[in-house]
Design a protein that fits this description.
It contains 10 helices and 17 strands. By secondary structure, the protein is α+β, with helices and mostly antiparallel strands. Pfam families: Peptidase_M42.
C-alpha cells in the first residue's frame, strides 16, 4: 500500500486562496533535499527546479496549492460571523458544515455554519458562522478579525481502506502530491529536459498564479494537474471522465484548448505503457492551463485532470489507482520531452 502521509499533510493544511502559507511550507520542506533551486513569484507561487545543469526544453508541471474557502467579512453584535466565499462553493454544501478558522497570528478555532432559511435558493448571505461567541467583544478576545480565513475542517482519510481517498482540499492537493512525487522519483536520473514543479496560488479565484509564475519561468512546455467532478455513468455510456478509469487529458475547456500535438504525444505515451487515460472536455470551467499557455508568444500546454466525487465540498474523493496512473504517465512523459519532441510540438511550417 502506498504511503499517503505526504498527501494527508497537504490535504489537512489550511490553505484557501491567498492564504497558502502552510501548503507552501510543506512543498518547500519536501523539495529542500530534492530541488537544486526554489524560487517564488510575487504572489507566492513556488517554482522548483530539479537540476540546474539539465539541458533540453524547460518543462513545467503545474498544480495549484489553494483550496476553496472563506474570509470573515462581518462580525455581528451577537457574535455570529458572515463570510465571503473563495472559489465555487455551493451554499447548500456549506450549510451545516464544520469549519476551521485561522487568525492572523495562527490561532485556529472551530466554527459551525448554519442557516435558518430553506436550502432551496440558499445564498452565501443566508449563512451564519458560529464560533460560540455571544458578542463582538468575545470574538475579538479570540483574536478573530475581519479578513481572517476559514476552510472546511475535514481531515484526510481512506474510505473504509478502499483506496478511495477523501479530504477537504483534494482540489488540488492531489495535483501537488503528484508534482512532488514526480520530482522525488526523477531526482538523480538523467533527463532530456529541464524539469520544474510549479505550485501556484489563487487558482480558485481566477487562475492568478498560473499567469504570474509561468510569466516568470517562461517554460517551453506546460503540463497542468487538476481535478474535475466525475460523471456518474458506466464505461459503456460513451461518457468521458469516469471515476476510477484513469486520468483525463483535457481536449478543451472554457478558457483553453489542449495543445493538439502535446495531447497526442501524451496519449501515445499512455498507450505505449498500458496506462489507462480518458479524453475530456470541461465546458463549465478551466485550469491554470488557460493563463499559462498565453504567456509570451504562447506555450504548448495540456491539462491532465483526475476525476473526483464531491468536488468543492468537505469530502472530495479521489481513487488512488487514478493517482498512480497519473504519476506513472508523468514519469514516462517527462523522460521523452527532449529537443526533438519540442520541435514536433511547434510544427507550424
Amino acid at each position: 500500500m502506498k504511503d499517503f502521509s505526504l498527501l494527508a499533510q497537504l490535504n489537512d493544511a489550511h490553505g484557501p486562496s491567498g492564504r497558502e502559507d502552510e501548503v507552501r511550507k510543506i512543498v518547500c520542506d519536501t523539495l529542500s533535499s530534492v530541488a537544486d533551486e526554489i524560487t517564488f513569484d510575487g504572489l507566492g507561487s513556488v517554482i522548483a527546479r530539479l537540476n540546474r545543469n539539465a539541458h533540453g526544453p524547460k518543462v513545467a508541471v503545474v498544480a495549484h496549492m489553494d483550496e476553496v474557502g472563506f474570509l470573515i467579512r462581518e462580525i455581528r453584535p451577537d457574535g455570529l460571523l458572515k463570510v465571503f466565499k473563495l472559489g465555487g462553493i455551493d451554499p447548500v454544501v456549506a450549510a451545516n458544515s464544520e469549519l476551521e478558522i485561522k487568525t492572523r497570528f495562527g490561532q485556529k478555532y472551530t466554527g459551525l455554519m448554519w442557516s435558518n432559511q430553506p436550502l432551496s435558493g440558499l445564498t452565501i448571505d443566508d449563512l451564519w458562522l458560529d464560533v460560540g461567541a455571544n458578542s463582538q467583544e468575545e470574538v475579538a478576545e479570540m483574536g478573530i478579525e475581519i479578513g481572517d480565513s476559514a476552510v472546511f475542517a475535514t481531515r484526510h482519510f481512506d474510505l473504509n481502506n478502499s483506496g478511495n481517498l477523501v479530504a477537504k482540499a483534494m482540489d488540488d492537493r492531489i495535483g501537488c502530491w503528484l508534482g512532488l512525487e514526480l520530482m522525488k522519483s526523477m531526482a538523480g536520473q538523467p533527463l532530456p529536459c529541464d524539469l520544474y514543479f510549479v505550485a501556484t496560488v489563487q487558482e480558485e479565484v481566477g487562475t492568478k498564479g498560473g499567469k504570474t509564475a509561468i510569466e516568470q519561468l517562461r517554460p517551453d512546455i506546460v503540463l497542468v494537474l487538476d481535478v474535475a467532478t466525475a460523471k456518474h455513468a458506466t464505461s459503456g455510456s460513451g461518457t468521458q471522465r469516469l471515476y476510477g478509469h484513469g486520468p483525463c487529458l483535457v481536449v478543451a475547456d472554457k478558457i483553453a484548448l489542449g495543445h493538439y500535438p502535446l495531447l497526442n504525444l501524451v496519449s501515445d505515451v499512455a498507450k505505449e505503457h498500458g496506462i489507462q487515460v480518458q479524453r475530456d472536455f470541461l465546458a463549465g470551467g478551466g485550469t491554470d492551463n488557460g493563463p499559462a499557455t498565453l504567456v509570451g508568444g504562447g506555450i504548448a500546454g495540456l491539462a491532465i485532470i483526475l476525476p473526483v466525487r464531491n468536488c468543492h465540498s468537505p469530502y472530495t474523493q479521489v481513487n488512488q489507482n487514478d493517482a498512480f496512473g497519473c504519476l506513472t504517465l508523468l514519469q514516462q512523459v517527462v523522460t521523452q520531452l527532449d529537443e526533438m519532441q519540442k520541435a514536433h510540438l511547434y510544427p507550424y511550417y
